Amino acid sequence: MFDTQQALQSIEKEIQNIALGTHPTELYEPIRYIMDLGGKRIRPILVLIGNYLFTDDWQKNTKPALAVEIFHNFTLLHDDIMDNAPIRRGKPTVHEKWNSNIALLSGDVMLVKAYQQLDFVEEKYFHTILRKFHQCAIEVCEGQQLDMNFEKVEKISQGEYINMIRLKTAVLLGFSLEFGAVIGGADPENAQQLYDFGVNIGIGFQLKDDLLDVYSDQAKFGKQVGGDIIANKKTFLLIKALEKATGETQDQLQSWLTKVDFDKEEKVKAIIEIYNSLNIKQETESKMNEYFYKAFQSLDSIPIKKEKKEALISFTNDLINREK
Amino acid sequence: MFDTQQALQSIEKEIQNIALGTHPTELYEPIRYIMDLGGKRIRPILVLIGNYLFTDDWQKNTKPALAVEIFHNFTLLHDDIMDNAPIRRGKPTVHEKWNSNIALLSGDVMLVKAYQQLDFVEEKYFHTILRKFHQCAIEVCEGQQLDMNFEKVEKISQGEYINMIRLKTAVLLGFSLEFGAVIGGADPENAQQLYDFGVNIGIGFQLKDDLLDVYSDQAKFGKQVGGDIIANKKTFLLIKALEKATGETQDQLQSWLTKVDFDKEEKVKAIIEIYNSLNIKQETESKMNEYFYKAFQSLDSIPIKKEKKEALISFTNDLINREK
């Protein structure tokens, strides 16, 4: 049986066990700080679920599973510098609490630490995992660069956007599942199918995020509804609206996007009205469901027992149905 | 026979062969740019010499040797961001030519690429090398953090300084030689002795750098003599002078260090006079020679033919005797 709570507990316990140096403290305190900020630990849980699909021995793989959590937190640390983000999980970001040089350098150490954590992978699977990890790591960096590029570009196509979110966020989910599968003895074809499941689910999750920013219940959402709208963030919704808007709607949309002084609430309301008039919610939901559907098709084709798959399906559905 | 020129040529050729992605170009052009800035390629040459000491087949190891060159350039890229350095090898630094986000992110990719290059290490040596590489990479980051810390500290001891330069620059030279030795089939003891040689030589090189900044022939030096003095850089010379100066000399030294407005030439001249009065040149040379002596003692105890050792001795002596 796979038990998400039990998995989470052993992940949290192992996070406390990660061997960090002590000197200089400026290098190691930020690593401890960001690892202790919490989060849902989705990626190592996906490693363990992926593992559970192919072996009952999943409990022994918490240590290698942490590699993806360390890597993920490394990307958050460096992305926060690049995005000049002041807050992460309700706390000051590392570059705010210390400074950006310390954030840069402790991030570098975290990338090495992620690699070091892979040393816990069993010898016979080691090279396969290591090579896939290199590729995944590079793709995540490519995604971040594309995301930064997109801020300066006027027009992005739907395909370019999907490719960016695939690289920036989805491939690490795919790799996490594949990682678990490979070290669970899955054959390459099944490991690939599970990777495809993860990537497609990941793309769907990001589209869900884009939707939640606009169409969520403020009481449940936790952060400000419409944050992406206020910042002109090129989400799937905006890209789609720019693609579909014509005539007066197009003029109104452009006018809001170029306005420098505006009332935030008024802008959010106006853009939502434009989205509604263009059917953007339905279009985005339909695209999101397309990816969820593709994902579950990949999962269907993996020849493992339905009871095993239930663990992954249930974990995924919780994430699909989240309201924040 | 080991042929440095031949080694250098194959290193340069392999650098051109490193597989880099193409998209997004912002991520890969900076990597190509910094790798093509040149430099003496000391670290991969040390891998190949370390290898040659234990096998005649050193020519086949250029690919794995590049891992240390990619890693070294990764550290330069990120250090230049942290130090806000405008120029590297006479050309604009990556963060100047592009921007600091691009420099940060392409540096991250380079660290992954360094790891990826280690995949060329023969299976039987792979884990040994990988684990030593993790450690070396972390130590280099620790050294950089200590170096940054020292800028803000008034007093550093000689021991703290030596430890910082050991981590920041010497361990990578030690690792490079050890790397070559291990993949050449050296036993662990001899590999360790070669590592010790590299680390001690590396510390000596840095002390030589500190000396050259002050006591070199401007015509041969290439950069401004006294640059460290103007910037109050805590070199071994300054640390030693602060330790030895008393009475009026101490007051003069402190006065120059705290002056905000000063004539550069005048400051350099005055500080050199203080150094001379305190015998700092001889003290530094003596410390440097202590490390060179230790290094050659380690080398002596490795049971390999004198002809083989000659390659390493001659390469090292060229670096010891350099005047810039």
From TrEMBL, chains A, B:
InterPro entries: Isoprenoid_synthase_dom_sf, Polyprenyl_synt, Polyprenyl_synt_CS. The keyword Membrane does not apply. Keywords: Magnesium, Metal-binding, Transferase. The keyword Transferase applies. Its cofactor is Mg(2+). GO terms for biological process: isoprenoid biosynthetic process. GO terms for molecular function: metal ion binding; prenyltransferase activity. It comes from the Bacteria. Belongs to the FPP/GGPP synthase family. This is Geranylgeranyl diphosphate synthase, type II. It comes from Thermoflexibacter ruber. The lineage of its organism: Bacteria, Pseudomonadati, Bacteroidota, Cytophagia, Cytophagales.
